[in-house]
Design brief:
Blueprint: H1 3-14, H2 32-38, H3 56-69, E1 74-78, E2 84-86, E3 89-90, H4 97-103, E4 114-119, E5 131-137, H5 147-150, H6 156-159, H7 165-172, E6 176-178, H8 182-187, E7 200-202, H9 208-221, H10 230-247, H11 253-280, H12 286-301, E8 304-305, E9 310-313, E10 334-339, E11 341-342, E12 351-356, H13 363-382, H14 390-406, H15 414-418, E13 462-465, E14 468-471, E15 485-488, E16 491-496, E17 499-502, H16 511-526
Parallel strand pairs: 1-7, 5-6
Antiparallel strand pairs: 1-4, 2-3, 4-5, 8-11, 9-10, 10-12, 13-16, 14-15, 16-17
Helix pairs in contact: 11-12, 13-14
Length: 527
Amino acid sequence: MNDAENTQNMDSTNSQPLQERVNNRSQRPTSDAFKAFMASNWAPAPQVTPARDAVADHAARRRRSISELFKGERLVIPAGPLKVRSNDCDYRFRPHSGFAHLTGLGVDHEPDAVLILEPAAEGKGDDGGHHTATLYFRPLAGRDTEQFYADSRAGEFWIGARPTLAEFEARLGLPTAHIAELEMAITKNVGAPEIGGISIRLVRKVDENIDALVDTARYNTAKDPETLDLGELDALDEKLSEALSELRLIKDEWEIEQMKIAVAATVEGFADVVRALPRALTHKRGERVVEGAFFARAREEGNELGYDTIAASGNNATVLHWTRNSGTVNAGELLLLDAGVEADSLYTADVTRTMPATGTFTDVQRKVYEAVLDAADAGFAAAQPGVKFRDIHTAATTVLAERLAEWGLLPVSVEEAISQEGQQHRRWMPHGTSHHLGLDVHDCAQAKRELYLDGVLTEGMVFTIEPGLYFKEEDLAIPEEYRGIGVRIEDDILMTADGPINLSAALPRKADDVEAWMAGIYQDAQG
């Protein structure tokens, strides 16, 4: 081959668009004969109309609540796109929690979908509200189309069947439309309300394409694009995200049932871990054995993990977000397991137990464990209707300060330590004691401070109580006997009109009960 031919071949290769080259390995036929054959002789898709989902009425009430806050404005809530893990491999899809809450959709439905609440005349919208809702998504392509077998992200041949527009409409009681109509639905009549236009509020940073579409529409319809204050518009969008977050502070009865399902599966996952401990103790990555045992339960009983599991043995238990889980599990150490199953509805549990790897606490381990348990019990006792959310933390950490003082670890008095000017006890408990729980493990995170930290505990709230003590091996401020011990006890709490209910109470909490529980599981496994 001469230089000219070589150059010509290189030019031919380089002319292939980069984004298409990932398909070179597929060797997919392109002949008309193949396309015609692939489009023929397929059984028709079932035409059964599904029953209405149990969540549909609850989701409609949530949309009605949001409608009340944003009369006359178009609200755009994206599910989000698929996210690339590596090259052409995507992570399992999980929609934005605000989208899931307002539609009721869980599991892996539907990448690129968008919920739009279109303003209507006051009181003339859905359920007497001020908006009409439409779900825009990409329906299943027909088996006579090229997408059916050629689209590895959306084709039925690759990823299985997906609901049709009619099926989702029946299940959710929510009008649906093809995603091809989405751009017009978002951009039509956008403009300043004072000149007859419609303003938009968007849940931002969920789908970059939707962000760009809304920004372009705002710019193109601005009275003076050069003076358009994008920061001001971003602030309007943030109010929508804030409202969606605050809407989840109080769970409805369907959500509470989902939380119970997630917690029950999580309890089973903890038992699975205890069964796996004999193997974990002999494996070079024992923490991964623990992680894998819980993950199997999460996939068997739910959709996924609610968050990355913390399986931390020995000194690793003093690392608050130890998710590497690459260490050994050694006899005589404590294992801190912080894990939660996410149900198919996407509601997650968040539970922590600290257990002796071989089934029995040492004296100093038990001493630290019981101090943390006392703090958790104090937090639970403080969690009563009408009390401020922040008071749970105060009650729990005061007990920890008292125990640290009794052990001679506090350099100041308890009174000075718990004052805002002190806080020395927080060296060994630097995180908060509680957070809201639901669709996100740290749910309602965009809620205003006065409704979250300074909010009043109210019937329907679900939150954690999770004090801990973390004595690092390298901590020279404590005696050697404490070093390398990390303990956290975390439970999921439902607030009722009569007080708190521990949803995760099926998992033992007292040191003696933990030892007996582990011994029972070991006996069952051997017997």
